[in-house]
Amino acid sequence: MRGKLLFLGGLAAGFVLGSRAGREKYEEIRANAQKFWEHPTVQEAAGVAQAQANKLYTEGKDKLQSSKLGEKLGTTSTTGTDSTDELLAPTDSLSGTKGPGSTY
Predict the structure, then answer these.
(1) How far, in Å, CA of 17 to CA of 80, rounded?
(2) CA-to-CA distance for 12 and 4, rounded, in angstroms?
């Protein structure tokens, strides 16, 4: 899957860099991508994926802390705001905004 994404990314980059309309075509592709990303269905799916990732992360962290390895490593549970209990949402490179569900 990763290889396919890299291949498609390479094709897109090659198209943009090699086309005579270069900048205009790039702006058109970027506008379409931004419109797609801002669609409510896409935002909802991204929010669900983020919630599932947070849940899996928390469950894994709890399992590690309660395991012998976690005890051996001396991991402790923190409840402050400095904790990494919630995954950080990536920055949307198209619009310069934070991802869905971000609170910062």
Answers:
(1) 47
(2) 12
Contact 16, 29 (CB under 8 A): yes
Report pLDDT digits (tens) over 56-75: 999 999 888 888 887 777 75
Give the type of residue at 71: E
Residue with tokens 């669609």: 39
Give, as one character, the DSSP assignment of residue 18: H
Q: Domain extents for the chain? A: 9-38, 40-72
pTM of the model: 0.44
| DSSP assigned state of 1 | -
List strand residue ranges (DSSP E) for the chain, in order.
91-92, 97-98
Q: What is the mean pLDDT of residues 30-57?
A: 94
List CB contacts of 84: < 8 A, sequence separation 6 or more.
Answer: none
Burial 51-65 (b: 16+ CB within 10 A, else e): eeeeeeeeeebeeee
